[in-house]
Amino acid sequence: ILFFSATAHAQNIDSLINLIYKEKTDSARIGRFYDVYERLYTIDPVKAIETQKQILALAKRQKDKVMEAVATAELGDLFSRDGATVQGTSLLLDAVRLAEATGNPQAIGIAYRDLAIFTRDLEKKKQYNKKALQYSTLAGDQRSICYELANCGIFYMQSEHLQLDSALFYTEAAYQLAIAKKLYHAPIGLLLQLSTIHQKLGSNGLALEYIRSAERLTLTQQDNPSLSSVYWYYSNYYLDAGSRDSALFYAYKGLDFAK
Predict the structure, then answer these.
(1) How sure is the predictor about 41, in pLDDT bands with cuts at 50, 70 and 90?
(2) How far apart are CA 214 and CA 220, in angstroms?
(3) What is the rounded distance in angstroms from the CA atom of residue 153 to the CA atom of residue 118?
(4) How far, in Å, are 153, 189, 207, 218 from residue 186 at the CA level?
(5) SS3 151
(6) pTM for the predicted model, two decimal places
(7) How far apart (Å, rounded) are the C-alpha atoms in residues 84 and 229?
(8) pLDDT by residue (tens digit) across 106-134?
(9) Is the separation of the CB atoms in 47 and 7 below 8 Å?
(10) Which three-class secondary structure state does DSSP give residue 182?
(11) Torsion-angle region of 119 (φ positive above 0: left; ψ -120 to 50: alpha; else: beta)
């Protein structure tokens, strides 16, 4: 597992990318890709886009269609998160086409999962995510299964009639899988997702404890982008609780770490 600082990132980016092709199988290369990708994203989301372009170019030079599909999907994800939704959606659709052409179930699962996240229609979100989960299960891709279970939880929260029990079931399943498989970044987001669900269920004390757990984990990992999210969750929690001073305090802290 790779742990490195922002300085190491700047100095060793090429060698980190090249580690992907030290692996001999598609599955191992995809695993190495996410080991690098998730840590780069936590250090500097903007640089993550440029790094992703480098990995995509490398995959094309290697004539590695499976990695090309995965890298295209995650580049589409990054563009979409950054607000470039037209370009992001185009890349996500390309990724599905590329992945299906390879017949690799792990790549197909990843492509459909990312497409599900940024599709506007809720029923299509569920449809794409269900397909992703089926392919990820076929591939035995525990990391992707974790993310797709988490998506199930989100989509149940987004349903017209809140299905919080189902949202809680899938989010807890995703969290337990993330802990069991020692996924680097996933537990933070899942703790915050659990906080949201419990707050909606009226369990405010438990909701606050999940935010605190996420904060402890972000501090341990020195994950500033996620720490910014944690402070926004604190702010929203206190705003809903009617404590405007605390809400403003954490909103400003969130802004500081988002810079």
Answers:
(1) low
(2) 10
(3) 16
(4) 14, 6, 18, 11
(5) helix
(6) 0.87
(7) 21
(8) 999 999 999 999 999 999 999 999 999 99
(9) no
(10) coil
(11) beta
